[in-house]
Amino acid sequence: MEAKVLYTIMKYGLIKEKDNIVVGVSGGPDSMALLYLLIEAKKQIDFNLIIAHVNHGVRGNEALEDELFVQRKAKELGISFYSKTTDMIAYGKEKGISSEEAGRELRYGFFREILDKYGGGKIAVAHNMNDQAETLLMRIMRGTGIDGLGGMEFITHDIIRPILNISRNKIEKYIEERNIETVLDKTNLLPIYTRNKIRLELIPYIEDNFNPSIIESLWRLSQISSIDSKFLEEYSDKKYNLILKSEMENYIILDKELFRRQDISIQQRIIRKSTEKLRGKLQGLTEQHISSVVDLFNFGDTGKTINLPDGIIAKTDYNNLIIEKGKIDVPKEYSYKLDIGNNYFPSVGYNFNIKVLPREEIQDIKSNKNLRFFDYDEVKGNLILRNRRNGDRFIPYGMNGSKKLKDYFIDEKISRDLRDKIPVIADSEHILWVVGYRTSNLYMVKNNTKRVLVIQYFDSNNREE
Amino acid sequence: MEAKVLYTIMKYGLIKEKDNIVVGVSGGPDSMALLYLLIEAKKQIDFNLIIAHVNHGVRGNEALEDELFVQRKAKELGISFYSKTTDMIAYGKEKGISSEEAGRELRYGFFREILDKYGGGKIAVAHNMNDQAETLLMRIMRGTGIDGLGGMEFITHDIIRPILNISRNKIEKYIEERNIETVLDKTNLLPIYTRNKIRLELIPYIEDNFNPSIIESLWRLSQISSIDSKFLEEYSDKKYNLILKSEMENYIILDKELFRRQDISIQQRIIRKSTEKLRGKLQGLTEQHISSVVDLFNFGDTGKTINLPDGIIAKTDYNNLIIEKGKIDVPKEYSYKLDIGNNYFPSVGYNFNIKVLPREEIQDIKSNKNLRFFDYDEVKGNLILRNRRNGDRFIPYGMNGSKKLKDYFIDEKISRDLRDKIPVIADSEHILWVVGYRTSNLYMVKNNTKRVLVIQYFDSNNREE
Fold it and tell me: Which of B221, B267, B287, B368 is the mutation pick for testing A, counting most A CBs within 10 A?
């Protein structure tokens, strides 16, 4: 085990001599095993090891005991120790993100604070082969391409994962054989978070019914995908540089003829790359966005425009393909019929998925900012996506009286400029949802609701995990 | 719907004027919808439509009623009708394949017989978007790379799938709106086959707990993977032709220097391609085989040899990489220790996965020719993979007395030549398994068995579905 981890560290260059390595230690088996394995590696590579522990403030006394346990271990081992207590639930609410994501941001933020004191370094985390399998299943279920199937890497920027290729079984065996003391993180045992549900329900079900070696099969899938995806990325980078005519802060111009000679697999990657360069991120760019641009760039008429998230525009002229940061070029007034299934409107750039499900089927799904449920039997006529009209009123969820939409916007401190851009979903009589904001009380899912309308909005800040 | 199917037919060239198209009709909703959609398409494209029905002889009278139903429909519609009764269970036993696979072989065999009478043509089958999702999940669970994630294609050789991009929901709606009469295939409702289990248990679980649009997400994954995988295949073909020095019936010689300049993603594909050319098939070539050859070809010493399935050998000399059909070059006597996890022995070319599981966890998994269960508590000492030794004895499963292994081979009519090659798995005292043949009665899993040893052999005829 020690040899395997040392091999990983050397092969992927995870730790070099004199590096500062902060290892996040919860006290659970995975992070305790990582800690002891890093101590072993230190015998071969002379680096500086620092232990950090974050108390997420969700498990009261028990969490305090864990903190004291890790602190005591650090002292015994003679390793510097830092800890911090945070409130991930409050932080999540404040930032409008899930508490899992909040926890992650707080943890890494703290680790980097520590590293700053030391003049920089890397963060070692205890992700293992089982975590990788869970990540893959999560991504497969939520929707991904082969780039997502690569899963987590041994090293991403300043984060290193020295035990990524070791299964939880082997970690537990190591802990047992070495008599390493650990604590039990009970939050890992509740199937409330998506990841725990995958770990505690889905994977055991697959192991029992389909493949007892599912963890290893998914590991191989991640390795194969990662190799293919890296090759495709590098190849597309080369082609991008060949096709590129001009790359400025506000626009990218590509050679139409050279672009059209590429395979669609490479074209898609070049479009993704260009958009990412202008926006600084990929989130929210869906496969439908990309294939609309692919169609436009291959067959589209000069003058046609496609709107992408964050006001990015794709268009063509005689010789060129252009992707640029525009003023958001949404029609002054727009109104589109929404159908069951996927709805993508290139001229405004919005992307919705619409379903109607029997009430029983949505019990376990939680709504969020971009995923909302409505009583389908209350819907009159067609569903319409449009921007606001003079005189629009709506009844915010939880309230009884209706309100001018304009007043709602004012109360929510939404700038005049934005008010015209926020889409609403309405039927022939009322507004159901001010997208990204409140839903209407009229369409609330009640106990006697039979069919539930599920609307998912893919916004440009959608995070995959 | 008619327009969408016609678009698919045109776009992928599924049906041309004057084609003979045999459509397999079970009488269920999917195939009846396909039948009516093809009748619509016939109004635009002048082709010859033929209905075929196979009675698999597993549901007695009910199956006969289905056959008569399809026959009556064919008559009403004025379309030629052929039917055949088969015994897929007997056929499966005879051929040593699952009854699902047997059913598939018998169906396609019959369809091709019909087409032969017409001078050739294509077979239309009713695979839909849900079937595609099931295929992807099955492959993901069993282990696959991105090439497998492409799933089924609209056209593969002589098989066309005109409704592959239509979901089961939409098919049912179409059936309802058009008032098309159908029968219910009850074998689809039993979660006994892997595929039915995925359909009836796994997908609904994922829809309820993780993603109500899982079918569409998997569809997108298949489309993306198929685009990427086709590009990688074409690119590797080009590189293969560049690197190839000589391609004969019994060997392939590649240029070492040019090979080493390729990305590992492409190297893997070139090795797969070369091996496939010599063997005529890919089945049984695992990722471990391929990565051993990649290592040999990139870093290996001249003179080292790797054994691949079916007696294919990979080796290098000063300037060349060689893949050749050898005499099976297995050491005369060999003996290797087997460990928990994956075991691959390049010098003999065998590949085993070994697990130990608690008894409760294997209740639903069925053993087959290459997947066997043993009582782990009966195992003494190390597990060993070896060929036969003089004086070997073993107690075939279901028998009480022990038998000379030699006599067992004679009874099984195994040629002398093969007898030395068949590997056995033994512990320090007895033979557990004559691999590919019988297991030992001594290690039978009993009611009081606590830990089960699971051994999976990846043989060169392993079929993925």
Answer: B221
**Percent residues over pLDDT 70 in chain B:** 94
- pLDDT on residue A63: 83
pLDDT tier for residue B465 given thresholds of 50, 70 and 90: very low
Contact A141 B210 (CB under 8 A): yes
User: What does the pLDDT look like over A221-232, one tens digit per residue?
Assistant: 999 999 999 999
- Cα angle at B2 between B136 and B125, to 5 degrees? 40
What pLDDT is stored for residue A459 in this prediction?
62
Measured CA distances, B77 to A420, B47, B122, B163, B386 (Å): 56, 15, 20, 21, 63
User: Closest Cα partner for A420 from A453, A387, A382?
Assistant: A387
Say if strands A350-358 and B383-386 run parallel, antiparallel, or are unpaired.
unpaired
Long-range contacts of A399-408 (CB under 8 A, 24+ apart): A399/A441, A400/A441, A405/A431, A405/A434, A408/A434, A408/A437, A408/A438
Angle at B413 between CA B409 and CA B414, to 5 degrees: 60
B225:A357 CB<8 A: no
Pair of tokens at residue B36:
């009516």
**Chain A, chain B: beta-carbon pairs less than 8 Å apart:** 153
Mark yes or no for CB contact B212/A142 under 8 Å: no
Closest by CA position to B391, among listed B426, B417, B418, B415 = B426
Q: Go through the domains of chain A in sequence order and give each one's CATH number.
A: 2-223 (3.40.50.620), 250-325 (3.30.465.60), 335-457 (3.50.40.10)
Partners of A217 on chain B (C-beta within 8 Å) are: 140-143
Per-residue pLDDT reduced to its tens digit, B211-222: 888 998 899 899
The pLDDT confidence band at residue B329, using thresholds 50, 70 and 90, is low
Any idea which of A246-250, A412-416, B98-102, B460-464 has the lowest mean pLDDT?
B460-464
CB contact under 8 A, A353 and B140: no
pLDDT, tens digit, 9 for 90 and up, residues A83-121: 998 888 888 888 877 777 888 899 999 999 999 999 999
How do the residues of chain B divide into helix, strand and coil, expressed in percent and rounded to 5?
A: 45, 20, 35
Does residue A346 have a known ligand-binding role? no
Does B29 carry a binding-site annotation? yes
A38 C-beta neighbours (distance < 10 Å), count? 23
Q: Which of B212, B221, B355 sits opposite A212 (nearest CB)?
A: B355
Tell me the torsion sign for CA atoms A277, A278, A284, A285.
negative
- Position A191 scores a pLDDT of 57
Q: Do B364 and A208 touch (CB under 8 A)?
A: yes
Instruction: Using DSSP, state whether A2 is helix, strand or coil.
Output: helix
Nearest to A234 by CA among B221, B406, B235: B235
How far is A463 from A448, CA to CA, in rounded Å? Answer: 33
Contact A232 B227 (CB under 8 A): no
Contact of B420 with B388, CB cutoff 8 Å:
yes
Smallest CA-to-CA distance from A31 within A154, A171, A155 is with: A171
Interaxial angle between packed helices A214-243 and B214-243, expressed in degrees from 0 to 180 and rounded to the nearest 10: 70
Residue with tokens 């459509």: B23
Contacts of B266 in chain A (CB under 8 A): 231
Place of tokens 């088996």: A29
Asked whether the predicted pLDDT for residue B460 surpasses 70, the reply is no
Q: Mean pLDDT lowest for which of A224-233, B58-67, B108-117, B292-301? A: B58-67
Percent of chain B scored above 90 by pLDDT? Answer: 49
Q: List beta partners, residue A155.
A: A160
Q: Which of B227, B287, B454 is most worth mutating to test chain A (most A CB atoms within 10 A of its CB)?
A: B227
